[in-house]
Design brief:
Strand 2, helix 2 and strand 3 form a beta-alpha-beta unit. 44% of the residues lie in helices and 15% in strands. It has one domain: Rossmann fold (3-Layer(aba) Sandwich). The chain has 9 helices and 9 strands. The chain is globular and about 55 Å long. The strands form 2 sheets. A 7-stranded parallel beta sheet has the order 3-2-1-4-5-6-9, with helices on both faces. The C terminus is likely disordered.
Length: 265
């Protein structure tokens, strides 16, 4: 079946669709009438999403597995002759707990948040170039890139890498494609439910999805929310020593069991 021939609505490929922000983005997109190819590792969760509407087509694969990504690329080409938008949302977070961190976490998180995201963009590009209008690449990053947080070495570095990649990509594809980088603050998801530290200005996944899609209609270079958190994080640049003291104190106060976890998406 070629999704692009079923109606005039846009065809969106969304990764990390089985939970959290991704799930809410999928539900909001189909409510707007768009066709969504919903990807993630959790086949059961994707099947539940597909039960909401025949406009959702599940495509399950592991973004950290290069072979699985290649197979997904072939399947995409079978599902649609073009993509109007790709939202790279799949993500993972593992904390480095000192004084004895699991250093391999850095490799695992980078494989998902950066390498996996880049691979998905790579296989989507040929279909995006066939979009009915200008194709649109969207990367869900994080405000963690604006300030150093305790135990976030692996997660923050992976998101910073994706941020820089998208900024450079925006220059190279400017003639034919739009690229938007989205920087959410703290969002209530199964991933953040495991956090044992303060998360100021946290929003629901549903609220985050609505804000993101409202912004994407304008195709901005960057969308950062909530703004209050962004201004707070500027303290790390203006007063780096003070920020470090705050983070050290917060880390000591909340030094509980942050068990490494990979969100099922």
């Amino acid at each position: 079946m070629d999704l692009s021939e079923t109606d005039n609505r846009s065809v969106v490929w969304l990764t990390g669709a089985s939970s959290g922000i991704g799930r809410e983005l999928c539900l909001e997109l189909i409510a707007q009438g768009h066709r969504v190819i919903a990807s993630g590792r959790n086949e059961q969760a994707l099947a539940k999403l597909a039960a909401h509407s025949d406009r959702v087509i599940p495509l399950a694969f592991d973004i950290a597995d290069p072979n699985a990504v290649e197979q997904a690329g072939h399947k995409l080409a079978e599902l649609t002759s073009h993509l109007d938008q790709v939202i790279v949302n799949a993500g993972s977070c593992e904390y480095l707990k000192f004084p004895d961190p699991d250093w391999s976490a850095a490799t695992r998180v980078m494989a998902i948040n950066y390498s996996g995201a880049v691979d998905c963009i790579r296989i989507a590009l040929p279909l995006l170039k066939k979009a009915s209008g200008r194709g649109h690449i969207v990367g869900i990053i994080s405000q963690v890139v604006f300030a150093p947080f305790a135990q976030a070495e692996a997660y923050g570095a992976s998101k910073a890498a994706l941020s820089y990649f998208l900024d450079s990509l925006r220059v190279d594809v400017a003639d034919s494609l739009d690229v938007t980088s989205v920087f959410p603050g703290f969002v209530k998801t199964p991933l953040t439910d495991r956090n044992h530290f303060s998360m100021p200005f946290i929003v629901s996944a549903e609220d985050a999805a609505k804000r993101i899609l409202a912004s994407l209609s304008k195709r901005p270079r960057r969308f950062i929310f909530p703004k209050r958190l962004h201004w707070l994080l500027k303290l790390s640049v203006i007063c780096p020593r003070l920020w470090q003291k705050i983070m050290v104190a917060d880390n000591k106060a909340n030094n509980k069991d942050n068990t490494p976890v990979r969100e099922k998406k």
